[in-house]
Amino acid sequence: MNKAYIYPVSARNKDGVYNPYLDDFMDSTSHCFDYLNRHDPSRVGVFNLLKYFWKIDFAIFHWPENIAEKKFGLLQSLFLLFMLPVLKILGVRIIYVVHNKVSHSQNRFRLKKYIAKKLMKSACLMIVHSGDGIPFINKISGGEKNVFFFPHPVSVQKPVLNPSKETDVLIWGNIAPYKGVHRFLKLVEGK
To answer: What predicted TM-score, i.e. pTM, was given to this entire model?
Structure first.
């Protein structure tokens, strides 16, 4: 089984705010990878890679461009950029899961773009959850990269018998103005 490091793994509190995406991703790909840091949430961001880089076959990065905005973001960004060639020299294959064409935040935007481009050049495989991601990556990389469309991983939930509500709404991700959630909620409310 391929040993893998996945970023980001942070503490998850299922009683509070909890996004199951990474757990669903790891569950969906657990037949391919043994995630060494799955149960080891990082308090130091990408620096946690130091614990694993000599044990892994793959490094899988989700939202690495956002590292620039994290605590000690500049230092973490420099560390990641330094580690990419080190990982390649050690034979660690890099997988970049491209979630967004560009960062949703303009904070340190140039650094974020630079990190994304470096990851695209370093990755042996890129994964997208949208068919539009394939031509986007091919355009940037000149069609030289392996890009794989992997439908958004979801967990299979047991059906609820006798639900007490008539309507359920699931809003996935951040509620940013460009997503139009406020317009959707006004529509649902009937205004």
So the answer is: 0.77
